[in-house]
């Protein structure tokens, strides 16, 4: 069995096609090497080893050691070094790399192979003892943290104290002797903590590091990240072992990270940061402030330190050529790590770069126009979920602001919330329904859950590629980084900026796009979508088969939906129209009426109100189909609660208050979701359905006459379980419709259909379709009734199900394909068997969820209907589902 794949020195055993086996990093290192790019040689241990490791109680498969030994010798030979050799010691990095990128989630060790002996060899060989000891102390610190699990604060403290005592400001001021002293301190920390010395056998170091990477696949932060990003545990991680190149070999060496385009805006220029005389982790950790890559960026940021373009023009030119080659090759924006060792460029990593929604859109559209990708590829490049970021509000430019601090604009978006200082608290408060802004000195992978729970993140330290910035962008959270003036008090009760103090729990507003934090809640405005958005949506519209409608009741929501490209209304929940102050009394009168006469009196009051509601909707949707659902309230939602409310109804209806109270009491249900709702209400009180049918048809006639537009009402009966329920109501609806059309003397098409929300309806859909001209899948109720899971109460225990892996997804968010989805498929098939042209749609919350949309494309539905803000997400997801 082949467990190890070598790469480098212009050849590679693996390439990008072996991503599942070699992980993203390993596959791309192979690919870069085979493209002839300067990649330090190394090898990748496959993800299959990870699988075997866990299958066999964390032990390694046979033959692995021999393959690693051989690969290591080969790496050494190609750079003229030998692992563990005293005079020419080969040093390696050991990194994780899963199939999907999990930034910062897994552990990395650099400079491995250094010992008290080999460090002397490195010092002689490089002619630079300072560099050798600097590398050794870095290694001890990293290895102790990642592999030996010794608290890294102890190391930082030693260094900080030493620098203070010697009046040093920067690490680069430290001499070889200084580092030697630090190293003895570090080694003592390890020995004190573990009761044995820091390992001096390079083989032991190597296996320790490999095991740490494999073990880290199941550490808490990796588990959290996988859960949030739906990455299966079974994929495993690969481990890449690679010859070290050094960015910390003096003024002609450097290290950096770069994106081939701006990951925040998508603008097409080289974007990145680098540090002279440093190693990779210095850039990401935000300990020193990195310098800009290009002169233009430097000038834009107002930096004084020279850019790479100015400081190292030859290496910069070489790097630019590599950027172009990689972007053309991968046909996507690349996120790159590089090192310059003594003037020579080395590529350490490339991957498709994480980006904001805005950048993702711009890059997809630009690359299509540049001829790099097709329209269809562009459609597939944008994650529909990420559009959420673009469709949400930003700060009102006219609102008053009270600026607290300024930092780097790390991730765009605006949000307000209470100040919190730690991730556990952020998570707890968010679970209580509070909006929080997480404020930290810096973030680490341990903060993932807090960052996810927070509406926005602010850090005192770190650059645009720091952990906080990268993770926040990926999550779509606004983020301000590197706010150097921010001081968090040790008590975590307040922070100060300049002389100003802000307490925990006070409300602040973050503007990630501007890199600013304001005091109080600053009002926000709706986003203006860029031309790129319209262009991509246009491409998606050309491709998709399913129509996209919106769930909307108010003219405002309907207008928002239209502006976002909705092609009709798929669900108007009429009960939502009844809550307004001027109607609720009449609605209560209707519900509490003792007899038909009382009910009709109330209905007479409601009819004109409903008619004008529907007229407004038909007008906004000008010519597009509008599905109006008959009343489906869980009755208790409308019952009067206080004496004042009872009194109000009594006054309006002329009924006795005590009688009303008794009747309200009688209407109380133990299980309203399974109670007197939906079509059951119409079966008991047909006059309610008749009033609504009349209001709908009269409104349609009025608008058709007034505007000359075609109006096509679709009247929808909710919560049908038996064909007979629908037949009973359809007969009455048809009667009224014919009557109204006759009264108005016009012809107008209308449809009567039903929601499929109960398993029985799905299973007998062939019978129901004899009366139904359309089906709309109410997957909220269908999920509730299929699982027997309460829509309202299950949020308290669903997290347990997710944690235990019993549910991978919340079934109220993403359609359960095996159960609820199967019912949808059965009903669609049976419905079509009876009525081949039956119109089929979905209007549960799943109608705006990309995975569910993908499922219903497969089931052949005609349209999805979702909340107005999700319309663009649905348009894009429907196109992707079709491709
Ligand atoms: C549904 O059940 O999916 C549906 C759309 O109806 P409601 O959410 O109003 O019950
Ligand atoms: Mg429902």
UniProtKB/TrEMBL annotation:
One of its GO terms (molecular function) is pyruvate, phosphate dikinase activity. Its cofactor is Mg(2+). Catalyzes the reversible phosphorylation of pyruvate and phosphate. Signal peptide: none annotated. It is an enzyme of class 2 (transferase). Belongs to the PEP-utilizing enzyme family. Keywords: ATP-binding, Kinase, Magnesium, Metal-binding, Nucleotide-binding, Pyruvate, Transferase. Residues 530-882 form the PEP-utilising enzyme C-terminal domain. It catalyses: pyruvate + phosphate + ATP = phosphoenolpyruvate + AMP + diphosphate + H(+). Residues 434-515 form the PEP-utilising enzyme mobile domain. PANTHER family: PHOSPHOENOLPYRUVATE DIKINASE-RELATED, PYRUVATE, PHOSPHATE DIKINASE 1, CHLOROPLASTIC. It comes from the Bacteria. Its EC number is 2.7.9.1. It comes from Hyphococcus lacteus. Pfam families: PEP-utilizers, PEP-utilizers_C, PPDK_N. This is Pyruvate, phosphate dikinase. The gene is ppdK. Residues 61-298, 316-369 form the Pyruvate phosphate dikinase AMP/ATP-binding domain.
């Amino acid at each position: 069995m082949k467990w190890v794949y070598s790469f480098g020195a212009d050849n590679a055993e693996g390439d990008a096609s072996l991503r599942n086996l070699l992980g993203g990093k390993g596959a791309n290192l192979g690919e870069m090497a085979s493209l002839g790019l300067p990649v330090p040689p190394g090898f990748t241990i496959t993800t299959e080893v990870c699988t075997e490791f866990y299958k066999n109680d964390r032990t390694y498969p046979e033959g692995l050691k021999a393959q690693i030994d051989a690969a290591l010798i080969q790496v050494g030979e190609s750079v003229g070094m030998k692992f563990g050799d005293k005079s020419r010691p080969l040093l390696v990095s050991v990194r994780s790399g899963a199939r999907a990128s999990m930034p910062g989630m897994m552990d990395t060790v650099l400079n491995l192979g250094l010992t008290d002996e080999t460090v002397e060899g490195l010092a002689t060989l490089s002619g630079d003892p300072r560099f050798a000891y600097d590398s050794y102390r870095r290694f001890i610190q990293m290895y102790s943290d990642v592999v030996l699990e010794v608290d890294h604060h102890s190391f930082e403290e030693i260094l900080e104290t030493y620098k203070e005592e010697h009046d040093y400001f920067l690490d680069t001021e430290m001499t070889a002797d200084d580092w030697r002293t630090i190293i003895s301190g570090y080694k003592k920390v390890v020995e004190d903590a573990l009761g044995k010395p820091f390992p001096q056998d390079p083989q032991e170091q190597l296996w320790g590091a490999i095991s740490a990477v494999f073990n880290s696949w199941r550490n808490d932060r990796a588990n959290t990240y996988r859960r949030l990003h739906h990455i299966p545990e079974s994929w495993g991680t690969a481990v890449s072992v690679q010859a070290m190149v050094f960015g910390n070999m003096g003024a002609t060496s450097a290290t950096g990270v770069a994106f081939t385009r701006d990951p925040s805006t998508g603008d097409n220029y080289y974007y990145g940061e680098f540090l002279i005389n440093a190693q990779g982790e210095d850039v990401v950790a935000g300990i020193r402030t990195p310098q800009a890559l290009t002169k233009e960026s430097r000038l834009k940021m107002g930096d004084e330190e020279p850019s790479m373009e100015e400081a190292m023009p030859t290496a910069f030119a070489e790097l630019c050529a590599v950027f172009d080659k990689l972007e053309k090759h991968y046909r996507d924006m690349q996120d790159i790590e590089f090192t310059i060792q003594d003037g020579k460029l080395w590529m350490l990593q490339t991957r498709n770069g994480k980006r904001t929604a805005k950048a993702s859109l711009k890059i997809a559209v630009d690359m299509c126009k540049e001829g790099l990708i097709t329209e269809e590829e562009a459609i597939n490049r944008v994650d529909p979920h990420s559009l959420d970021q673009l469709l949400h509000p930003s700060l009102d430019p006219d609102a008053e602001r009270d600026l607290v601090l300024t930092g780097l604009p790390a991730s765009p978006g605006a949000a307000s919330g209470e100040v919190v200082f730690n991730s556990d608290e952020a998570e707890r408060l968010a679970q209580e329904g509070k909006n929080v802004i997480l404020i930290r000195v810096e973030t680490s992978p341990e903060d993932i859950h807090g960052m996810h729970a927070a509406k926005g993140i602010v850090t005192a330290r770190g650059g645009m590629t720091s952990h906080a910035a990268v993770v926040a962008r990926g999550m779509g959270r606004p983020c301000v980084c590197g706010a150097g003036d921010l001081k968090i008090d040790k008590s975590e009760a307040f922070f100060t900026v300049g002389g100003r103090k802000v307490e925990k729990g006070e409300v602040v507003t973050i503007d990630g796009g501007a890199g600013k934090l304001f005091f109080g809640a600053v009002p926000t405005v709706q986003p203006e979508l860029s031309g790129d958005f319209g262009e991509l949506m246009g491409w998606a519209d050309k491709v998709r088969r399913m129509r996209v409608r919106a769930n909307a009741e108010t003219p405002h929501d309907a207008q928002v939906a239209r502006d976002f490209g909705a092609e009709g209304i798929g669900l108007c929940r009429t009960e939502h129209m009844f809550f307004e102050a001027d109607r609720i009394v009449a609605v209560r009168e209707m519900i509490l009426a003792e007899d038909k006469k009382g009910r009709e009196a109330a209905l007479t009051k409601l009819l004109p109100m409903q008619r004008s509601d529907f007229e407004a909707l038909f007008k906004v949707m000008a010519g597009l189909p509008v599905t109006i659902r008959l009343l489906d309230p869980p009755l208790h939602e409308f019952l009067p609660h206080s004496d004042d409310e009872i009194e109000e109804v009594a006054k309006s209806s002329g009924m006795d208050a005590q009688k009303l109270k008794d009747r309200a009491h009688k209407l109380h249900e133990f299980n309203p979701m399974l109670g007197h709702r939906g079509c059951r209400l119409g079966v008991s009180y047909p006059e309610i359905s008749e009033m609504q049918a009349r209001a709908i048809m009269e409104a349609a006639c009025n608008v058709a006459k007034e505007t000359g537009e075609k109006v096509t009402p679709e009247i929808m009966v909710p919560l049908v379980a038996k064909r007979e329920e629908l037949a009973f109501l359809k007969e009455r609806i048809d009667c009224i419709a014919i009557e109204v059309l006759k009264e108005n003397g016009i012809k107008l098409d209308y449809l009567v259909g039903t929601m499929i929300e109960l398993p029985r309806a799905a299973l007998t859909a062939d019978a129901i379709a004899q009366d139904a001209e359309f089906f709309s899948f109410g997957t909220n109720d269908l999920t509730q009734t299929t699982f027997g899971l309460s829509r309202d109460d299950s949020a308290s225990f669903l997290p347990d199900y997710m944690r235990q892996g019993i549910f991978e997804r919340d079934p109220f968010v993403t359609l359960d394909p095996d159960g609820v989805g199967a019912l949808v498929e059965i009903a669609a098939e049976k419905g079509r068997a009876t009525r081949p042209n039956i119109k089929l749609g979905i209007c549960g919350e799943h109608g705006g969820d990309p995975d569910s949309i993908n499922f219903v494309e497969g089931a052949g539905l005609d349209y999805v209907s979702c909340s107005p803000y999700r319309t663009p997400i649905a348009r894009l997801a429907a196109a992707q589902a079709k491709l």
